[in-house]
Amino acid sequence: MAIAPVRFTDHPPPLYVLELRFRLDGCQSEQEKRQRLSPLFRQWGKQPQIALREEPLKGEPERAALTVVICMGSTVQAQRTADELMAWCERQLSAWIEHFQSMET
């Protein structure tokens, strides 16, 4: 029995890239910053359609930069997921989103 190769019918699913800048009030060290961000990676990093990467901001323990790549079936789904992620961050991490930028590919 032959296995058919996987092919995209029209185009590959769109990628939605989100760059986030957080302010973590009261955070005193890089270790504390990692501890405060760990729920984000546990909650959202397990999802197969989402990739998370913390960008290094040495010497700024109260700030964090994150790049999020979302691969969904449609741009609307990806935008909805990005909105949910940002709302979750503000609620669960007690972090202020100082800046965000999104881009579709």
Present the secondary structure layout.
Blueprint: E1 15-23, H1 30-44, E2 50-55, E3 63-71, H2 75-92, E4 96-104
Antiparallel strand pairs: 1-3, 1-4, 2-3
Please name the CATH topology. Answer: Alpha-Beta Plaits
- What is the CA–CA distance across the termini? 37 Å
Average predicted confidence as pLDDT: 86
> What's the quaternary structure here?
single chain
Number of H- or I-type helical stretches = 2
The fourth-level CATH homologous superfamily is: TT1725-like
Indicate the CATH class: Alpha Beta
Series of H and E elements: EHEEHE
Helix and strand composition category: alpha+beta
Q: How many strand elements?
A: 4
The biggest beta sheet reads: 4 strands, antiparallel
Overall morphology: elongated
Name the beta content range: 25-35%
Q: What's the domain count? A: 1
Radius of gyration, in Å, reads 16 Å
Strand order of the largest sheet: 2-3-1-4
Low-confidence stretches: none
Describe this structure in words.
With 105 residues, the chain is α+β, with helices and mostly antiparallel strands. It has one domain (17-104): TT1725-like (Alpha-Beta Plaits). It is built from 2 helices and 4 strands; from the N terminus they run βαββαβ. It has helices spanning 30-44, 75-92, and strands at residues 15-23, 50-55, 63-71, 96-104. A hairpin with a 7-residue loop joins β2 and β3 (63-71). The chain is elongated. The mean pLDDT is 86.
